[in-house]
Design a protein that fits this description.
This protein is mostly helical and 131 residues long. The protein is built from 8 helices and 3 strands, in the order ααβααββαααα.
Length: 131
């Protein structure tokens, strides 16, 4: 789950997502990314540090130039985990057992005390309230 969180955090920033989309088409050097995205070299470096830390890109040095490539397998693994976790969370999401137990209790209380078709009135009158 930690790897998937790093990937999701990395791609949640629009410029980093744009970088990944460009790298999906071709290996690019940092100067090309500066030109394509209209951002500064230091900004590209910061974004690339985050993307490298998440395992989404690798780099290759050629003289003074740094070329970046998309690491498709790491991105695919994180997205596959997310898909499995959302479709079958109890098998893949790695939440603490206590959280699943609290959810089970909440759902049991809702089933016993609320109209399953419309839980809103029950939520509004509960002691905890909902937001």
């Amino acid at each position: 789950m930690e790897t998937a969180l790093l990937v999701l955090k990395a791609i949640s920033q629009p410029t980093r997502l744009r970088i990944l989309l460009l790298l999906a088409e071709a290996e690019l050097c940092s100067c090309e990314l500066v030109e394509l995205l209209g951002v500064t070299q230091p900004a590209i470096s910061q974004h690339m540090n985050v993307l490298r830390g998440a395992g989404l890109v690798s780099e290759r040095k050629s003289g003074t130039w740094v070329y970046y490539q998309l690491q498709r397998s790491n991105l695919e693994q994180a997205l596959q985990w997310l898909s499995r976790a959302v479709l079958k969370p109890r098998l893949h999401a790695n939440l603490p057992t206590a959280e699943w137990s609290r959810l089970d209790q909440l759902l049991a209380d809702r089933q016993q005390n609320c109209d399953a078709a419309d839980p809103q009135p029950c939520c509004e009158t509960s002691k905890k309230g909902c937001s």
